[in-house]
Each structure stands twice: as C-alpha cells, then as structure tokens.
Design goal:
This protein is mainly beta. It has a single domain, classed as 6 Propeller (Neuraminidase), CATH 2.120.10.10. It has no helices and 27 strands. Strands 2, 3, 4, 5 and 6 form a 5-stranded antiparallel β-sheet that branches. 50% of the residues are buried.
C-alpha cells in the first residue's frame, strides 16, 4: 500500500488539534478541514495545551488533493455583522469550546442542503450540563460562513455538537448530536431532523439508552438500501475500555440496533471514528490509537458494516497519546485523505497532518 504523509499546519510552540470537532468537506480534489489552534504546554496534562491562552478556530484548504495546504483563521461570522472572524475561542478543561462572535440567532429557514458548494459546521460551548450548541452554513466551499445559528436544547441538560449530518433533500437534513446523560455527564447520541431548511429541528430518537461510560462523537452514513449507520466513540464505563461501536437504523432513524464493534480498542482515552463510503462501495473507518505505539489506523467493510477487515496501520510513530481525532475524504483517483492532529515528541508542538493512502 502506498502511504504519503503531509503537513497541514505546524508552527513552533503551538497546539493545533481536533479536526473531528469541526469537520471536513471536499469537492473533487479541493478539500477544506477545520481545527483549533492554541499554544503548547508540556505540563498541560492529557492534552498538552496552555489553557490560560486563547484558542481560535482555523481552517486549511488544499486544491491538489491534500498534497499542499493553506491555513487561515476560520472566517466564522456574526449575524448582522458578516465578515468578522471569531476571536472568543478559549480552551475548556476537556478541549476547546466553540467559536462565535455574538450570540447565536434562530435560522430563518431556506437552507438548500443540496447546493453543490454547501457545507455545515456545528460547534459547542462544552461537554457537560450547561453546554449549548449552534451551527454555521456556507454555500461557497467554506470561503465564507453564515452564523452562528441556534440549535435547540431538545429538553436536555447540555448539547455538545460536533459536525455530523446527512443530507436528506433540498430542505431536509438529519443531524447526529451528543447530549449529556441524565446525570449531566457526557454523553449520549441522538438524531435530530430539519425538514424546513433549518427553521426548526425536531428530536428523532436516541441511538441507545444511557451508557455506563459514554457514547459521543458520531460519524454517520446513509446506505444505498436506505439504511443509516452511525459509528460511536464509546467508553464502556468510567475509566474503562475505549472502542468504536456501529449502530444501524432501517426506519430512517426511529429505532437503532448495535451491529458490530469495528474497533474494540482505541487505546487509553479513546478516539472518535471517521467513516466514509468509498467509490467502490466499501466503508472505510479511520481512528487514532492512543496506546503505544500511538498512531492512525483504519478498518474496511465490504458488507455494509456487518464485518470488518483486520486493522490497517497508517502510521505508528506518534510521540505519545495526544494524537488523532481524524476526518477523511476520498479523492477522484480513489486515494483517501485522512486529516488528524499529531506530535513527534511529547515536548514538541501538536500539528495537523494528513495521510494520503489508497485502500
């Protein structure tokens, strides 16, 4: 297998992390990925970042299928004050809070989710009780973003949104979001849907009951037969094993069942899934592995997620566990571009990297 690693963003003394918290979008060989940028501090704990200094939302764009990248501060905008970049992004104890200028407002409706240059980005203030979430939209390939726009609380103690949505029609989309559990801790995944172009969002269903640990950070696909599958970052119990479970619905998200565990061990601390469907029909799931040797791995399924290949190690040269949070897209030539954050040594900066590989 041919594997090529490229650098998306790196700067001395900086902490660039968590592409999975924002998203990735592609149009043929044009790729845009989001990430967050702060400052490195090797005494910062599990995530070696300086929590006393600001974090900002960034995005990087490649026009050549992931070989080279240009990075800018993400042009997230404020309602009624378009064009102002977000600058209120501060680090929270368990990761970055979301990025916004001004308070989110209700979306007036009219989103065309099928627009060829459409993108949607979801964000949040935190992970536990009290967390609020919102979204941005773009119809020019992430050159500009409109928002922030409110997401409902859905009657929950907290909503921690990352970007995971399925386009169902012109004004219709299904979002997969993480709510707090009944005790206010993270997290439990549910589906929500808009059928009026973002004017309103309705709760659809929980993917499963309150887990003993957590279910968070979904990554979802709609299959050719109409079914929906969602991969979940799962912790079996507090401090217990970390894995990736796969759920399936055959009634448009009303009910769900567990079908497989594509990755039974993602290392101490766990890592979220990035799931895409390849042009040949197979499903590709990538994730970070946080025990030694830390790195980026993948598994493949040729039967709609019912079974999975042995692990494919894309790289295992991580400096320590502070890596991963991938997102993936496929290029026209069949190669997959997987973007994630990485480090070469615990006392060095965290940077955004991409691996280009052909399954």
């Amino acid at each position: 297998m041919q594997i090529k690693h490229t650098t998306v963003y790196s700067a001395p003394g900086r902490y660039a992390g968590w592409p999975a918290n924002y998203g990735i979008w592609s149009w043929e060989d044009e790729i845009v990925t989001g990430f967050t940028l702060g400052y490195h501090n090797d005494k910062g704990g599990f995530h070696a970042r300086d929590t006393g200094r600001p974090f900002i939302a960034m995005q990087s764009r490649s026009l050549d299928g992931g070989l080279t990248w240009d990075s800018i501060q993400a042009p997230l905008q404020a309602p009624g004050n378009m064009g102002i970049s977000a600058d209120e992004h501060m680090a929270a104890p368990q990761g970055p809070v979301a990025d916004r200028v001004g308070a989110p407002v209700a979306h007036p409706g009219g989103i065309d989710f099928t627009h060829p240059d459409f993108a949607m980005l979801c964000a949040r203030t935190g992970l536990k009780a009290g967390a609020e979430s919102w979204f941005y939209t773009s119809i020019d390939r992430c050159q500009t973003w409109d928002g922030p726009f409110t997401l409902p609380m859905f009657g929950q103690l907290g909503i921690a949104a990352r970007t995971d949505y399925l386009v169902d029609g012109r004004g219709e989309a299904t979002l997969f979001l993480t709510a707090t559990k009944s005790d206010g801790e993270e997290g439990r995944v549910f589906g929500a849907r808009t059928v009026d172009g973002g004017l309103s969002f309705k709760f659809v269903s929980w993917l499963r009951p309150d887990p003993p640990g957590f279910d968070i950070m979904p990554s979802s696909l709609r299959l050719d037969d109409g079914g929906m599958i969602t991969a979940l970052r799962t912790r079996n119990a507090s401090g217990g094993g970390d894995s990736i479970d796969l759920m399936r619905s055959d009634d448009n998200g009303i009910t769900w069942r567990h079908i497989t565990t594509p990755a039974s061990d993602t290392g101490t601390g766990g890592n979220p899934p990035a799931m895409i469907r390849l042009s040949d029909g197979r499903i590709c799931l990538t994730y970070g592995y946080r025990d030694a040797p830390s790195g980026i791995r993948s598994v493949l399924s040729d039967d709609q997620g019912r079974s999975w290949s042995p692990e494919i190690v894309l790289r295992d040269d991580g400096g320590n566990h502070d890596i991963g949070y991938p997102r993936s897209v496929q290029r026209n030539d069949g190669s997959v571009v997987t973007v994630y954050y990485y480090n070469d040594s615990p006392d060095k900066e965290r940077y955004i990297a991409a691996t280009i590989w052909k399954p």
